[in-house]
Amino acid sequence: MILIDTKQIKAEYLPDYQCLKYSVSGYNYGVALRDVFNKFLEFGKQYKIINWLSNYRDAEILEKEDIEWFLSDWWPRAHKELADGKKWAIIASEDIFMRMGVKVIVSQFGGVPGRVVTQYFESEVDALKWFKED
After folding, report:
1. Are the C-beta atoms of residues 80 and 112 closer than 8 Å to each other?
2. pLDDT tens, position by position, for the chain (134 residues)?
3. What was the pLDDT predicted at 9?
4. 8 Å CB contact between 85 and 51
5. Which pLDDT score is estimated for 98?
6. How far apart (Å, rounded) are the C-alpha atoms in residues 118 and 107?
7. 130 contacts 89 by C-beta, under 8 angstroms
8. DSSP 8-state code for residue 73
9. Residue 86: helix, strand or coil by DSSP?
10. In this structure, how many other beta carbons lie within 10 angstroms of the beta carbon of residue 56?
11. What is d(CA 18, CA 55) in angstroms, rounded to the nearest whole number?
12. How many CB atoms neighbour CB 57 within 10 A?
């Protein structure tokens, strides 16, 4: 089920995986980026998402202010509202600066025991297989 379909951000719910799958391309920043990620939290609650598939392969740099927002605002809410035993699969960006920004966020909140298990993948197919394990 398609939830968001814009030029730079696409999101869909995959019911067979209880997954919110989204892809980000190009340069996204500020209020527009934050609004989309807040929508992701709403979708997470609405559809009882347990798996997240984030495809950043074609995304460009994250601004420092947006990284700070993710760390201080979005991630704490995401963990409180949606965590506990969830899996987060990440397709890393080819842009080195975006890759570094995502790694900063993951290092702060990803992989917390009993909360969110994170893993990087080269393809969405491999990530979806991982969701079916266990």
Report:
1. no
2. 999 999 999 999 999 999 999 999 988 889 999 999 999 999 999 999 999 999 988 888 788 899 899 888 988 888 777 666 688 898 877 777 666 766 776 666 555 555 678 888 889 999 999 999 87
3. 95
4. no
5. 65
6. 10
7. yes
8. I
9. strand
10. 21
11. 17
12. 18
- Which DSSP symbol is given to 17? G
Rounded to whole angstroms, the Cα distance separating 115 from 117 reads: 7
Whole-angstrom Cα distance, residue 62 to residue 68?
10
Tell me, what amino acid is at 63?
E
Neighbours of 110 (CB within 10 A): 18
Q: Nearest-CA neighbor of 113 among 82, 76, 86?
A: 86
Q: Are β-strands 51-59 and 86-91 bridged in parallel, bridged antiparallel, or unpaired?
A: parallel
Distance CA 21, CA 63 (A): 23
Domains and CATH numbers, the chain: 2-132 (3.30.750.24)
* Predicted TM-score (pTM) of this structure: 0.83
